[in-house]
């Protein structure tokens, strides 16, 4: 093969590889520490590291698209993003609309109260007659609605500031995932405390549109997640942010 022919062949290989690479548009709120947040003008967190690792395996580029959490599901359905990396819990309603990857975080729903109130509110059974905040668009409102005492709980949805309003006594408690709650209490100056044990296991995964292109992308990302799980990369990313492995079912 001549040098000219070899150079042409190499150019075709590079061009083909570039054509196969895609831009994966990943939606997230950028305000859910330590999963996705902005610090010193840099988007970072567990979700950012996971999606960068996925793209490294698939050979794609990642474009992070930040917006309010409540708008993420609509943006995915409208094809403005390709998936959501913001601790999206698998629920029957969401499974009817989207195709999910394998779970990559296993967690639980947690009641959090103002410090000092954890002796009177020790779990969901004590929320009767109480005001409880949840993030708008999250699955925690649904989990509260499934409780035996759901009719006695005043649930209030928030775009933000549920921790602040709980600490100030504007609501009696908020419900969030256990992992984020522990991190928030450890990092925040707000007087907050866990109220009992998690009351529901939740499995978080990446949703994709349930069409031919979405399913193909789901399968590609899912294969990358399997590689990252098998070689220990998921565990390493989890340990970086949480000092424990939240990517496997807890013992």
Automatic annotation (TrEMBL):
UniProt keyword list: Signal
Signal peptide annotation: 1-21
Keyword check for Cell inner membrane: no
Transmembrane spans: none
A GO molecular-function annotation: ligand-gated monoatomic ion channel activity
Domain (Ionotropic glutamate receptor C-terminal) ranges: 23-244
Pfam families: SBP_bac_3 (PF00497)
Domain Solute-binding protein family 3/N-terminal span(s) in chain numbering: 23-245
GO cellular component: a single term: membrane
PANTHER family found in the cross-reference section: AMINO-ACID-BINDING PROTEIN YXEM-RELATED, MEMBRANE-BOUND LYTIC MUREIN TRANSGLYCOSYLASE F
Protein's recorded name: Amino acid ABC transporter substrate-binding protein, PAAT family
